[in-house]
Amino acid sequence: MRRQLAARLGQSLIVVVLVATISFFVIRLAPGDPFSFAGENIPFSVRDHWRHVFGFDKPLLEQFGRYVLAVFRGDFGYSFSRKGDVSSVIADALPRTILLVGLAVFLSFAIGIAAGVLQATRRGSWFDRVSTGVLVFFYSLPDFWAALMILFLFAHRWRLFPTAGIVDPVSYDYWPPWRQLVDRVAHLVLPLFAFTLVTVAAVARFQRAAMLEILPSDYVRTARAKGVPEQGVVWRHALRTALTPMVTLLGLMLPAYLGGAVFIEKVFDWPGLGSLAADAIQKRDYFLVTATVIVGSIVVVIGNLMADLLQMALDPRVRE
Amino acid sequence: MRPSLIFVAATTLLAACSAGDRAPKSTQDAGGTLVLALPEPQDLFPPLVNEAAGRLVTDQVFDRLAEIKPELATIGDKGFTPRLAKSWKWSADSLSIAFSIDPQARWHDGKPVLASDVRYTFRIITDSAVGSPVAPLVTNIDSVSVRDSLTAVVWFKKHTPAQFYDVAYQLVIIPEHVYGKIPPKELHTSPVTRMPVGSGRFRFVKWEPGVRLELVSDTANYRGRALLDRVILIATPEPNVRAVKVLSGDADFMESFPVNQLSQLDTSRVAGPVPYPNFGYVYMTMNRYDPKSPTSPHPIFNDIRVRRALAMSVDRSSMLQNVFGHNGRIAHGPFPMTVGYADSTLKLPSYDTVGAKSLLDSAGWHPAADGIRVKNGQRLKFTVVVPTASLPRGRYAVLLQGAFRHVGAQMEIQNLDDAPFYARAEKSTFDAIMDGYTTDPAPSGMKQRWGSEAIGFIPGKGVSGANSMRYSNPRVDAALDSATTTFDFARSKKYASRASQTIIDDVPAVFLYDMFVTHALSRRVTAPPLRTDAWWADLADWKIPADKRIDRDRIPLAQATP
Amino acid sequence: MNRTLRRLLAHRSARWSLATIAILIIAAAIGPMLVPYECHTQLDIVRLQNQPPSWAHPLGTDQFSRDVLARLLCGARISLAVGTLAVAMSMTIGTVYGLISGYAGGRVDGAMMRVLDAFLSIPRVMLVIAVLTLWDSVSLAGMIVLLGTTGWFGVSRLVRAETLAVKRMDYIEAARALGTPTSRILWRHILPNVIAPVIVAATLAVGSVIALEAGLSFLGAGVREPDASWGSMFLAGVSFSTSTWWILFFPGIAIVGTVLAFNVLGDALRDVLDPRQLHAPVMTVASSVAAPIAPERLENG
Fold first, then answer.
1. Which of A33, B434, C96, C219 is the most exposed place for a label (fewest CB within 10 A)?
2. Lowest mean pLDDT among B106-110, B390-394, B526-530, C22-26
């Protein structure tokens, strides 16, 4: 098991190196100059100074080496649109995305798994058909569209929730802790709702299919024969087995969650990694935008690793 | 002996009078939290500040030697009230002015404001490693010397009508003991410049980039504390989102309320409209040089006939109505109608699509099969750069696209955020650009955009002035020189008009509209009349009366921020 | 093939989605010619601005006095073009990659999979945004290429899984023993057996790409004025207050309806194509990742 773990870790590292390589080439191939940035009357001498600091005047291979090493050190360059090191900008933004995505994953999987199980056990029924239709409809909503509709309805039309941000921008600092918590939760509700809405369908469909495969199997029939009540059969025996591919699904869906975060965060003004990416196009911040790609990928890699570990823990068959 | 006694008596009297000007306002009613919904500021370091939100913050946190009065008279020194400088004395030949710093003036860290700070400020502004956009505005100032710890002498090259204005309006004084330690070329990226330490009636508290910026009243200020407790700037890039915040009361103020929603503002009980003439005007510049190789002529726009034809294809008044309804002000030339030297009698290219088409034909541009004109294999196709921050400019771009298509020109639109937009503007890397310029009240402001001395981008050297399109016409330079050196206002205006007409005839740009805007202000806030060049100038005197306060106004001043 | 079609048409939902897609294709093809207005023309910027739906303009006009119906139809062309071409590209690249990787096996397969893992780890939206940011401006063709080259990762995993299973079959062994060249084996024997999930994936991907393109336009990175993609029409509509609901409503319905139709069709296809032909279950995920993925049996590590 330890060997497998080490192998997985090694593979993950290779993946990160490959991602860094890809982004290095994307930066170098792109027209223009990362130092032709923005906004100020920075004299050429200063720009050359930075070009030198970032090693852009060195041979390509050396640049590449420095670049990959810098990525592993966590040094992603300087962000001119944010006036700070890219790593500190991302360090501020990333936890907010992790919070949102983490909660969304939890909710969409919890609801999705439950829905999938219910659909599988009532296959062909009215419930199954209607809920499948509803889920396919939600699944077809573009992320940004769903977010906009929810924002419009629940924040503008019926002013139930705040319209933007993670906390009240004015008074948060001055509120007692309990009020701060309430404020944070209030700001989380709508983006979480939008996120869950568009992702729950995929989970439910997958779970339904997985359950439908498991339910007629020998393993389950044995459990029934042994006299285990149907509830127990479904929720304990069948589900345990069906969970294994769900964990794989989680790992595979992570890039999708992060991609969805770009739109959700943009609409709800949630200052996370996704909104950094969403703003990048108009800000033309080379270093920041490539860092979002790399960091996003690292999050996915770590997520996959954790999903694999979870799987190894859950399913002994997988371990060897 | 006796003359000096009279002199002492006179100056004491003068000091007493001007001190009355700066007496602390009644602070019994002080309090409240003002929330501004604005785009994110870019810089908080006065020598580098180049945009409105940044200037707003620095104007609250820092002071000038003297502040211009609302009438904005720029000739001589009568139109200014003392600020950091309690008084000043001209030399006999008017080539130097000695400013006496108020001995009570303190920086926010407690240290006194000294004459050496003024010297340092000027040094940083003119340091080429810093590349301050203020540098070309103070070319008439030769140097600043220190006579004693509280007397700074400013030396000029020439005696001009605006020389006092050059010092008082352009130099925002910064503390040497805070910033002097940083090598000038690192000032752009040093984190110290993001925590401004000034002498103004507001103190900087903190800045969370992309989220908010907080200022708090400086209770120990030498001019008296600000009448508000707190000002919070919420970074909101989208104008429509700002409008929503103001109408719902989440924010108290926004600039340029979207024109199409003005009726909502009129009937709102939360906020009300504040009409605001200012010194801005918007125009679409056509680059005479090739953006790819700045010394070669532009393949399309180098020909004045093409530029004129495009200008003639634009129905400016219809576009004004489409974008602004009945609230627009059409441009009459390279100036806003709010400046003293404005002239509405000048002749601009008239709207004439037939004439435009025949002009293009005669210039050798003939329509191809798809309707777009071609000449020597070159299509009449170009890209215009538009700032995303301005809704009207974005809409004008689409309208212009339609108008140009009608006469056989294909214009692509590229929307950019503030920072990359300014970068392109400054370096002339555009075919066309939806530019806007907020000029100064004086005719010298015209020089900044249209004078040869202010040519922005010098290939290989970097940026110096604001004339980024590198427009140059010696007749314009001569007329503007005359306008800025004559002390007679009427003659100055005549010269300015001559310069303007010459500029118009050169068709460097299509002049579209004046930035007459309506701001939105919460109805619980009482504000003095907004100064035309900077609505935030008197922010320290804005009040929220006790009977109109809401929850957030009651945040105590003393409460420490985390 | 006929049998498949008949089984497909037996599904009620499939009939509906096929009909919708057919209408969409017809509307995109000839629609703009039938409407009296062009999609770019600003008719009368003062008097015909923001007109609600009427007989003259069934879907109203936008703030630049352009007919919304005309723009919607032009947008249909763009959306469909981008969707089908980008997906065709993705499917081709992905299938080829998966075939080679699966058939070659061994270290080649291992290396190719590592590279694929790297690509699969990158959130597609972020990668596309990064490229759009760095390349400053991208034409419609460029957008299609960009979407096409970022959407093949999931398909290749799918095809590889299928190839791995199929290559162990007896008739493949036989063909190899007979000395059949590899390319022929791949093209004649393996490809037809792995194509089924690719078809399902392709159908679902079209919907995803259309949604993704709309999202990119919403961020300001997609199709530019005066061209109308449904996403950019949407963006223009959001800027306005609800008094001009038609600018938001119709593009919104168009996007959701189209994506829904393709998703439903893809589901039906999956049901219909003999499940026994699929050696690995085919699943799809949220619209931001426009590629189906197969839950890997962990034999592949």
1. A33
2. B390-394
The 3-state DSSP class for residue B111 equals coil
Sign of torsion, CA A70 A74 A75 A80?
positive
Cross-chain CB nearest to B42 (options A39, A49, A170): A39
Residues of chain A contacting B, Cβ within 8 Å: 36-46, 49, 78, 80-84, 89, 156, 159, 163-165, 169-171, 173-174, 269, 271, 279, 282-284
Q: Identify the CATH number of the domain in which residue B438 sits.
A: 3.10.105.10
With residue A222 as reference, give the H or E element that holds it.
Answer: helix A218-225
Q: Is residue B2 part of a domain?
A: no
What is the interface pTM, i.e. ipTM, of the complex?
0.86
Give the mean pLDDT of C180-193: 81
For residue B225, the enclosing domain spans: 33-252+524-560
Confidence of residue C297 (pLDDT cuts 50, 70, 90): very low
Banded model confidence at residue A32, pLDDT cuts 50, 70, 90: low
Q: Do residues B422 and B534 both lie within one domain?
A: no
Q: Per the domain annotation, does B22 fall within a domain? A: no
Say what percent of chain B tops pLDDT 70. Answer: 92
> What is the pTM for the complete model shown?
0.82
Q: Do B319 and C42 touch (CB under 8 A)?
A: no
Residue B66 has pLDDT above 90, yes or no: yes
Identify the helix (H) or strand (E) that includes residue B480.
helix B474-485
Residues of A in contact with B228 (CB under 8 A): none
Q: What is the mean pLDDT of residues B81-96?
A: 93
Residue B177 and residue B196 in one domain: yes
Domain count, chain B: 2
Asked if A136 lies within 8 A of C135 by C-beta distance, the reply is no
Is the residue at B269 inside a domain?
Answer: no
**Quick one: B82 and B218 in the same domain?**
yes
Q: How far is CA B404 from the centre of its chain?
A: 30
Phi, psi (deg, nearest 5) at residue B97 = -130, 130
Verify that B500 and B556 share a domain, yes or no.
no
Strand ranges in B388-522 using DSSP code E only, listed in sequence order? 410-416, 432-438, 457-458, 462-463, 509-514, 517-522
Query: Which pLDDT value is given to residue C275?
Result: 60
Question: Average pLDDT, whole number, for chain B?
Answer: 86
Instruction: Dump the DSSP string for A104-149.
Output: HHHHHHHHHHHHHHHHHHTTTSHHHHHHHHHHHHHHHS-HHHHHHH
pLDDT exceeds cutoff 70 at B135: yes
Q: Model confidence at B218, in pLDDT bands (50, 70, 90)?
A: very high
Contact at CB, A45 and B129, closer than 8 angstroms? yes
Residues B330 and B181 in one domain: no
pLDDT tens for each residue of B269-310: 999 999 887 788 999 999 999 988 878 899 999 999 999 999
Position A49 scores a pLDDT of 63
Confidence class of residue B2 from pLDDT cuts 50, 70 and 90? very low
Residue B201 shares a structural domain with residue B349:
no
CATH at residue B224: 3.40.190.10
Q: Which two tokens stand for residue A117?
A: 């199980």
Three-state DSSP class for A314? helix
Shared domain for B87 and B215, answered yes or no, is: yes
Same domain, B489 and B555: no
Q: Which residues of B169-180 are buried (b: 16+ CB within 10 A; e: fewer)?
A: bbbbbbbbebbe
> Residues C148, C154, C158, C160: is their CA dihedral positive or negative?
positive
Q: Which amino acid is at B35?
A: V
Q: Residue B271's pLDDT is what?
A: 92
Residue B271, domain member (yes or no)? no
CA distance A304 to C31: 47
